[in-house]
Design a protein that fits this description.
By secondary structure, this protein is mainly β. The protein folds into four domains: 38 residues, no CATH class; 185 residues, no CATH class; 101 residues, no CATH class; 114 residues, Immunoglobulin-like, CATH 2.60.40. It has three helices and 24 strands. The strands form six sheets. Strands 2, 5, 9, 11, 12, 15 and 16 form a seven-stranded mixed beta sheet that branches. A four-stranded mixed beta sheet has the order 1-4-8-7, with no helix packed on it. The protein has a four-stranded antiparallel beta sheet with strand order 17-18-22-21, with no helix packed on it. The radius of gyration is 44 Å and the shape is flat. The N and C termini lie far apart (102 Å). 29% of the residues are buried. It comes from Leptothoe spongobia TAU-MAC 1115. Keywords: Collagen. This is Collagen-like protein.
Amino acid sequence: MTVFSGFPLGFPYFVRLSLSALTVSTLTLTSWVSIAAIDICGSTALASRQFGQDGRDGRDGRTGRDGRDGTSQTIWVTGDPVHLDLSGTDGEDGGYGEDGEWVRCRRQPRDERQDLQAADGGDGGDGGNGGRGGHGGNLTVHYTNPSELRQVLVTADGGRGGRGGRGGDGTDGCDCADERWTVEVCKDGTCQLKEYECDDGDDGADGRNGRDGDVGSLGQLVLINQVDPLPQESPRQSHSVASLANLTVNLSRNLWDTRSGAKTLLAPGSTIANTYQVYTGHIERQFALDWQAPQPSQSFTEAVDLELQPDGQVSIDFPESYWLLGETLEQETLTTYRVDGIVPVEEVTQLAVGRVDGRSRTFEFNVVDLAQRSDVLETRFEVRYSTSGDDGRRRRYDLEFEGPVPENLVQQDHNRFTLALGRLPIRSQLLSGGTRAQVELTIIRSFGSNVAEQTLTWEGEI
């Protein structure tokens, strides 16, 4: 054994053994500290370490393609037998999910100074969903003699849905050869036996089986009791407000009735949906906009949607960004909507607190309409009047009055309202100078059947 000079008295013997390959010249103060902390039995336990390689998850199966829809056809019956196949094709089956990859387990390390975790097995891939069956095609029949429909044999089945693919199998995880073992661990010269564990790897989950595709729907029958093609229709149109003011719009609609028992009208053995559509006629209607509002119509460029309903009425859908005041007038085949007034919704509630002045019975509260729409809008006021005493803590208001402001206490000067709140049934002491007050004003504005509210709040000293 080689003994170096210069070691402190009482230097640990096991450390002196570990220095046999070093020279004194290489040692520093830092070296002395780190060497003294060496644990010859190994470091303390770390987090679990995995051994082996996890199995790769299997890929999902491909989704089956949808079947093709049957071709819709229009025919004119003449009494000769007709056989049509308008069926949709079947959906494609979904692909199988791939099995998970087998795990590479490898040999479990021995005498490890940390817990071990064996590798997990791979999950199986999900099976692909089956494709939807194609829908049966629709059949439109022009005829003049209902009995000739019995010469039409049609097959308009929906295709079958594809089958869902099977999910792949998951693979087994690795097993531990030794579930527990004991190793001597030393620290600061003290050694003890420490037990470690190994956890088996998780088995991979089996993939989900794919969903079967839906069956395609049966085709539908449409009957038109005339040889001529149907007239063109235009039941829905959109126009700007500006263009409607100088335009008469022509609307038209073909009318239909829904009935049951389609298969009883056609040749025996026909397969088609039981409900069918029957053409019952054609209607036309004109629409005009009579602009009587004070604002020029050219300043309103938003679209108005018109639709001719089956009962012959014209529905008018103005933009929601406006309030309208008007009336619908019906005259033979002409529907006219007269616009007496129009207000942008965003300008209805642009009110602000104006001057607050006076005391006791002369206390007044002013409201200003910044959008200047008060000459055409009806305006009502409701008020909550509260007072507060200063108690040195958080301010609290006590409600003294709540209710509508009578019309005789409201004076309007174009777009300014003066509310004589001092004349409300409130004790004059609660309105005296120096009183700390809170006024919460709810303003109700209306234009025809349209109503909106705005709340203004003021706090201050009277």
